Amino acid sequence: MKKIILIFLCSIGLSVSAQVKTLTLKDALNYALQNKADAKKAKLQVENSEYQIQEVRSRALPQISANGNLTYNPILQTSVIDGAGFGAPGTTIQAVFGQKWTSGAGISLTQALFDQSVFTGLRAAKSTREFYQINDQLTEEQVIERVANNYYSVYVQRERLALLDSNYINTTKVRDIVKGQFDNGLAKKIDLDRIIVKMSNISTERQQILNQVQLQENALKFYMGMPIETEIVIPQEQFEVTPEALTEAPNTANRTEYLLLKKQEELLVYQKKSIEAQYYPTLSLTAGYNYLGQGPEVPLFAKPSDGVYWSDYSAIGLNLHVPIFTGFGTRAKVRQADVEIRSLQEDIKDTQLSLDLDYRNAKTQIENNLVTIENQRENMRLAGEILSNTKNNYLQGLASLTDLLDAENASLEAQNNYTRAVLNYKVAEVALIKSKGELKSLIK
């Protein structure tokens, strides 16, 4: 029985540990690109574009169809004709034409010989595939950006939690010292109460930060497409500050956002050409072969002896359609398409300015954050020294409890400021990499 319980507990332990996943930034990004719905849908659009090309290509291929019919005529039409044609001039003959039953079957073919809209559609379809391929790349970059920013945010929240835990341990030590002094009559009760209040405040703040950590981790898992119940561990070495090379402004013509708009402009041009194709004549070939059966009985399976006769017939033709006047409807559509092109061109100009702005802002933020990090690192070092000296002075009776608490608060604030500075730097770093069109480098 004990062995069964032991095996059961071990299996539980293994299943729990199996849910813990160590995530580097590269791991998180690759996981998101494989599992996030946005990334999957973008790839499905690329796949769907192939089917769109096949659909347009089908318009240039022969269209073949088969048909069949069976008709029963309860009352046949009567026609009145001149009897002169039947050797009875001056009389009128009422003749019934047709048969009670008529059955037919045939096959028809239509082939476009010249249709400008088909040729334009084929070129547009290939551009559509390229559009979705660029859109897929843009979607991947957006997934990378969101995951990277949330990844760093989780780190900051965890660092804040670690700082509070460390501060709580240090404050507990001070409380033990003050309690010992109070028990020996060397400290006042108000001093002990102040320490207890501070510990309670730290515990409350820790619970709030713990909640923020959970929320931030859940957000990260959502942006990754990872099950929320999965436990994650983020290695510390992922957050070293390594100054990003501040190169010259990148060529915005290589940015995915710009390329997507240019491809969209190309599609709008094809759309305009497709409308203009309505000015052109169209020429098509048609061919058909049919088999017709008629008689007083159902033609199916009947013979001439039953009064049912079958005959075949065929036709081949050319159909020419020449548009002459459409009430200026086509012209209006062409002008609308031209307005759409010009409107998109304005968006392209605005996007170029926006991309240049993104680079300049990211570069400025990187430079400022590097200075801030150095300042906060020095502040953190000085605050640590002050806290250490104040603690020694307090133990020797040369500093008050107020001085010690102030020094602890200053040290904690300096560490939090440094952590926030690192986060701001990392976010700016992602923005700079994005502005240079190099977000994919984060997964290499």
Automatic annotation (TrEMBL):
Residues 1-18 form the signal peptide. Its main location: membrane. One of its GO terms (molecular function) is efflux transmembrane transporter activity. Pfam families: OEP. InterPro entries: OMP_efflux, TolC-like. Residues 334-383 form a coiled coil. It is found in: Cell outer membrane. One of its GO terms (cellular component) is cell outer membrane. Keywords: Cell outer membrane, Coiled coil, Membrane, Signal, Transmembrane, Transmembrane beta strand, Transport. It comes from the Bacteria. The keyword Membrane applies. The keyword Protein biosynthesis does not apply. Belongs to the outer membrane factor (OMF) (TC 1.B.17) family. PANTHER family: OUTER MEMBRANE PROTEIN TOLC. This is TolC family protein. It comes from Flavobacterium hydrocarbonoxydans.
